[in-house]
């Protein structure tokens, strides 16, 4: 029996959440080991498990992998979510890079001082509505298909849904001017594996709160 992938990260979203999403969408069960102390983190470094001294860390197929993008690309290819040829793959890369830029802004906003957070969130919502969501609305309109690339479910669809839901947590009405993206959200959310991941009690993590931020700051010492 093949061992389940093992994910090692903090007890929250961060850079591991897209990896959780991709595995869940592929219908793959995974285990998690949570880093909750500085000592745990230092032991991972001392044991040579963190190539560049950073998490996420994923153990899969006899390998110990770090670097988020490399892990996601491997998983997408392994589970047939990375297009049928190089032209589809590069479009998936292009779209996921775009959504990752947006999600990184949201991740970093959680670490801002309270007095800067509100202004930062307003800026993120504005960029979503003027830069990122119009681009995906245009893609969906131009090809008129259910999925972003090759009319087949891919990593690009998974990560766009993740990004959309993250922005909706900041402003619930953010999709009001994007009917195709709104329909896309409904469609992808109803794919059985994703529907299961969106249910309470799954391994999906909640938005970062002050406790999570404090724990991560203490572990990484910043």
Any key phrases for this structure?
single chain, 222 residues, alpha+beta, 4-stranded mixed beta sheet, 4 strands, globular
Structural description of this entry:
The protein is of the alpha+beta class and about 220 residues long. The chain is about 55% helix and about 5% strand. It has helices at about 15-25, 40-45, 70-80, 85-110, 115-145, 155-170, 180-190, 190-195, 210-220; strands at about 5-10, 30-35, 55-60, 65. The chain has a four-stranded mixed beta sheet, with helices on one face. The longest helix is centred in the middle third of the chain and has 30 residues, at about 115-145. The termini are far apart.
Radius of gyration: 18 Å
**Beta-strand share of residues:** 5-15%
Helix content class: 55-70%
Main pleated sheet: 4 strands, mixed
Let me know the average pLDDT. 94
- Helix count? 9
The H/E string reads EHEHEEHHHHHHH
Strand element count? 4
Shape: globular
- Strand-pairing-aware structural class: alpha+beta
Distance between the termini: 41 Å
Low-confidence stretches: none
Please list the strands of the largest sheet in the order they lie side by side.
Answer: 2-1-3-4
SSE layout and pairing:
Elements: E1 6-9, H1 17-25, E2 31-34, H2 38-46, E3 57-60, E4 63-66, H3 68-78, H4 86-109, H5 114-143, H6 155-170, H7 179-189, H8 192-197, H9 210-220
Helix pairs in contact: 1-3, 1-6, 4-5, 4-6, 6-7
């Amino acid at each position: 029996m093949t061992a389940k992938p093992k994910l090692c990260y903090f007890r929250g979203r961060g850079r591991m959440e897209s990896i959780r999403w991709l595995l869940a969408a592929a219908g793959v069960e995974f285990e998690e080991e949570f880093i909750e102390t500085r000592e745990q983190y230092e032991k991972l470094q001392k044991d040579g498990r963190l190539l560049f001294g950073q998490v996420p860390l994923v153990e899969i197929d006899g390998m110990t992998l770090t670097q988020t993008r490399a892990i996601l690309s491997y998983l997408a290819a392994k589970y047939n979510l990375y297009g049928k040829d190089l032209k589809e793959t590069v479009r998936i890369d292009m779209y996921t890079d775009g959504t990752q830029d947006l999600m990184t802004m949201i991740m970093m906003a959680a670490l801002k001082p309270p007095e800067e957070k509100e202004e930062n969130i307003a800026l993120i919502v504005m960029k979503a509505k003027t830069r990122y969501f119009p681009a995906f609305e245009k893609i969906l309109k131009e090809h008129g298909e259910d999925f972003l690339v090759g009319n087949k479910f891919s990593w690009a669809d998974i990560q766009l849904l993740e990004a959309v839901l993250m922005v909706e947590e900041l402003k619930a009405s953010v999709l009001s001017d994007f009917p195709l993206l709104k329909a896309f959200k409904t469609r992808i959310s109803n794919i059985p594996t994703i529907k299961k991941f969106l249910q309470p009690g799954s391994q999906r993590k909640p938005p970062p709160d002050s406790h999570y931020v404090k724990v991560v700051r203490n572990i990484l010492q910043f």
